[in-house]
Write a structure and sequence with these properties.
alpha+beta; Penicillin V Acylase, Chain A; eight-stranded antiparallel β-sheet; seven-stranded antiparallel β-sheet; 33% helix
Length: 488
């Protein structure tokens, strides 16, 4: 698919020019215009896995901690106290999961649990101005409870819907992307108690920047849709939808109008569609919720999209980096100055999720750091990627970090951010040799992944600790390669 993608990028010269002036100077983004996700059904992927690609974008200087939370048993009467003040009965036993924690942030953490259920989100501004809440609503804890309790993506969607309908969602709006080894969903929540979810067809790909992408809703089709029973009626009552004007569209009814027309959303969506769909879309087109790709999508395809700066198009205002680095000059891109990390979750059915669920993680900026495999079956996290423990992290999550350099001087994430800044200072001179090293390293990681997993399959009577040690050793070797590249 790579050659086709390069060829298709030439269609950019036909972009409607009316969008370009609005894009200039918006590289630093607007509130709610952060994060980007792609969901790939298992019949659309090269290896039969469900793939979930995500760039986490957030304002300011941030740090990302990585924790492994074990299976936990909770005593009778245990409860979860939400940030907003409400309480929720805790499950007797909660799942183990990898936790990408961003201190201070309400809506930025990522999760992959022991069943491969992977969760991240994209802010989507809604038009709701009269929300209903119970006990203050729910925000930060919503995705964590999904990760703690769900054995599959649909169960996570059900949990999300129940919590939103009871407590009410505190943010303006958001789409949670949820995937497991069998299927992928988008769950769009609106400030207050309304939500809708759509399943990504197994042979298709869905892309979302920072606006709602669910349009047509068929709640009678429970295989593919779930949502609030009064979703359409409420929109009618608020004057957001008039049946006389045609079919109901969730995104048109519930979105903040500014989000749907914002160029930072449209151009990022357009670029990924151009790279993956095989069609010559223009920025003024209406993009479908999902599409059938022209060929099977692999990990390298998604790595490439998460690194995209509109190279080779009219929106590349750096002149192929001659005018500076793409994170500080020109249009808001998929890989941006606000990107804190990127990942591609590789979720394979028919395998023990400990080995079959892999989080390919690029700490901080995907364009200058390779994607390294972190398995769901890891029993511990390599040293230097977290401060304290998963228990102290939860207790201290909303305590201001202050100066990032004082947070934990030897934190690896701080080294990755410093390296990215250094590259930005001379991006043109440095990016091409770095890109070659990254592609070579990732190719090597994927080849060695095959050998490692073959070795695991051939083990007689293995235990989880033994497998966990093997997986940790592989991740450590890949991280060492990544760190050596930074030093070079």
């Amino acid at each position: 698919m790579g050659r086709i993608h390069k060829l298709l990028r030439t269609v950019a010269r036909f972009l409607p020019m009316l969008f370009l002036p609005a894009v200039f100077g918006q590289n630093h983004g607007s509130a709610g215009m952060d994060c980007f996700s792609i969901l790939v059904g298992r019949d659309a992927s090269a290896d039969g896995s469900v793939l979930f690609a995500h760039n986490e974008d957030d304002y300011g200087e941030r740090v990302v901690n990585i924790y492994k939370v074990p299976v936990l048993e909770h005593g009778q009467g245990a409860s979860v106290r939400l940030k907003e003040g409400g309480t929720l009965e805790q499950a007797p036993v909660t799942c183990s999961f990898l936790w990408l924690e961003m201190p201070e942030m309400d809506f930025s953490d990522g999760y992959m649990n022991q069943y491969g259920v992977t969760i991240a989100s994209d802010a989507c501004q809604s038009r709701e101005d009269n929300p209903e809440f119970t006990d203050g609503g729910i925000g930060y804890w919503l995705r964590r409870i999904m990760a703690e309790r769900a054995r599959n993506a649909r169960e996570a969607v059900d949990i999300c819907g129940e919590l939103v309908e009871y407590f009410g969602y505190t943010g303006s709006g958001r789409t949670y992307c949820v995937a497991d080894p069998c299927e992928a969903w988008m769950v769009a929540v609106v400030k207050g108690k309304h939500w809708v979810a759509q399943r990504v067809p197994e042979n298709q790909v869905a892309i979302i920047p920072n606006y709602y992408t669910i349009s047509d809703v068929h709640l009678d089709d429970t295989l593919n849709f779930l949502g609030s029973g009064d979703l359409i009626l409420y929109a009618e009552q608020r004057g957001w939808y008039d049946p006389a004007q045609g079919a109901f569209s969730f995104r048109e009814a519930y979105s903040s109008p500014g989000a749907l027309t914002h160029t930072e959303n449209i151009t990022r969506h357009w670029s990924a569609m151009t790279l993956l769909s095989g069609k010559e879309y223009q920025t003024g087109d209406t993009f479908p919720f999902s599409f059938i790709p022209p060929g099977k999508i692999g990990l390298p395809d998604l790595f490439g999209v998460l690194r995209d700066h509109y190279e080779g198009t009219e929106l590349d205002l750096t002149g192929s980096y001659e005018k500076g680095n793409p994170h500080e000059h020109g249009a808001r891109t998929i890989c941006a100055h606000t990107t804190q990390y990127g990942f591609v979750a590789q979720l394979r059915n028919g395998m023990d999720p400990a080995v079959g669920a892999v989080l390919w993680l690029a700490p901080h900026r995907p364009c200058v750091h390779p994607f390294v495999p972190w398995y769901a079956g890891l029993q511990e996290i390599p040293e230097g990627f977290a401060r304290g423990t998963y228990l102290t992290a939860l207790e201290e999550h909303f305590i201001p970090v202050g100066d990032m350099k004082d947070y934990l001087p030897v934190h690896m994430f701080i080294k990755y951010t410093a390296h990215a800044r250094e590259i930005d200072e001379a991006y043109l001179e440095r990016i091409y040799p770095i890109r070659e090293m990254i592609v070579e390293a990732e190719r090597d990681f994927m080849e060695r992944q095959i050998l490692l997993e073959q070795e695991v399959r051939e083990m007689t009577d293995p235990d989880q600790e033994e497998i966990g040690n093997m997986l940790l050793g592989f991740t450590l070797e890949c991280l060492l390669r990544s760190q050596e590249m930074m030093e070079q």
